[in-house]
Specification:
Layout (H helix, E strand, L loop, with lengths): L1 H6 L2 H10 L3 E5 L5 E4 L1 H7 L9 H8 L9 H8 L4 E9 L2 E12 L7 E8 L2 H47 L5 H32 L5 E4 H11 L1 H6 L3 E4 L4 E4 L1 H17 L7 E9 L2 E8 L31 H11 L4 E5 L5 E8 L1
Parallel strand pairs: 7-9
Antiparallel strand pairs: 1-2, 1-5, 3-4, 4-5, 6-8, 9-10, 10-12, 11-12
Helix pairs in contact: 6-7, 7-11, 8-10, 10-11
């Protein structure tokens, strides 16, 4: 097929693409697609890709978080012979893994046309990739658990000796030294909180979850009871609409609601805090919304707040370990759902997550 392509005329190349048994296209030396067959349009879910730059095509299709390819680099490699890479794209059928193979054709060795063949990666290959990813995640979870568990003993030792130093030598130490000891003890307290948060995050990925009917309203009420003390102390108003029964793990759902409430309490604004939980059905899933009138989150930080051990600039007054939202997203992901936030600085936050009906 390669020899035939190299000897074909420009018009014959278009005919060749149409005759190929797989999805394919030709892009010229300027990175513009000049020919494509119907199989490609069907595979990508596009009406036509002719006239579109190759870089723009894949940028528009690429799944969130997928590695970004470079068309110029692809063409440079193809000048030396055939080359392949993989693309992960989003179509109306869901996320699709593709293998993309490019072959230089024509007589212009400086900027040859490229014949690009595209075909889905088999289910077997995808399963192998998923297993490798799951193994890597399991190894990371085990490392996080072991590391955080092993760190507790030396931390207790440091904290203990600092306490002994304060008790036995406190009277002979000046105010500056007393301050140093207090700062060190506060540091060990914060590190202990981070270690415990990391352990909870690790357990959320390792421990088995139940799968049965869960009354989301009862789960939310249990979460409210858990934060009743600090909520009453600041005069917070926490309400909910009618929440459905979903499939999942009841303690995990209570944890999710409780962490969202704790987050709202920690990052409240100057006005009395209000929090409301609602749910709406979309197809075969429920979309839950927990909205507060707190200090809000800038759009550029909407993903960062879900990363472990992250506390944003300007939110340092809360001395928690920065694990609550990361734990929430992990528990929801283990239920097969998604979690995200909609917010602006100073405009409160809407945390949303999905669960199957």
């Amino acid at each position: 097929m390669k020899d035939l392509a190299q000897n074909a005329s420009a018009s014959a190349r278009r005919a060749l693409v149409d005759q190929l048994p797989i999805a394919a296209y030709v892009c010229d030396g300027a990175d513009v697609i000049v020919a494509a067959n119907a199989r490609l349009d069907a595979l990508l879910g596009r009406d036509s890709v002719i006239g579109v730059s190759e870089a723009a095509l894949w940028t528009g299709l690429r799944a969130p978080g997928a590695e970004t390819g470079a068309s110029a680099a692809l063409q440079a490699r193809a000048c030396l012979g055939e080359c392949e890479h993989e693309e992960r794209i989003v179509t109306s059928e869901g996320v699709l893994m593709l293998r993309v193979a490019a072959t230089p054709i024509g007589d212009d060795s400086s900027a040859p046309d490229l014949l690009v063949c595209v075909h889905p990666i088999s289910d077997r290959s995808r399963l192998q990739l998923e297993r490798e990813l799951e193994r890597s995640r399991a190894e990371l979870d085990q490392f996080a658990y072991a590391a955080s568990h092993d760190l507790q003993e030396p931390l207790r030792m440091v904290n203990g000796f600092l306490g002994l130093l304060r008790r036995h030598a406190g009277a002979s130490l000046d105010e500056r030294c007393q301050g140093h000891i207090a700062t060190a003890l506060e540091g060990t307290r914060r590190m202990h909180a981070q270690i415990m948060g990391l352990l909870a995050w690790s357990r959320a990925g390792r421990l088995p979850l139940a799968s049965g009917p869960v009354d989301a309203g009862a789960a939310f009420d249990a979460a409210v009871a858990r934060v009743r003390g600090p909520a009453d102390e600041i005069g917070a108003t926490i309400t909910r609409g009618e929440l459905p029964t979903v499939i999942g793990d009841q303690p995990a759902l209570v944890d999710v609601f409780a962490k969202l409430l704790e987050n709202a309490i920690a990052y409240r604004g100057s006005t009395p805090l209000t929090v409301e939980a609602t749910a709406s059905r979309r197809g075969n899933e429920w979309v839950f919304t927990v909205v507060d009138n707190g200090i809000g989150i800038a759009p550029e930080h909407h993903e960062r707040v879900f990363e472990p051990l992250q506390r944003l600039e300007g939110r340092e007054r809360h001395d928690g370990p920065g694990m609550g939202l990361a734990l929430c997203r992990r528990l929801i992901a283990r239920h097969g759902g998604r979690m995200w936030v909609e917010s602006e600085n100073g405009a409160g936050a809407r945390f949303r997550f999905t669960l199957v009906v």
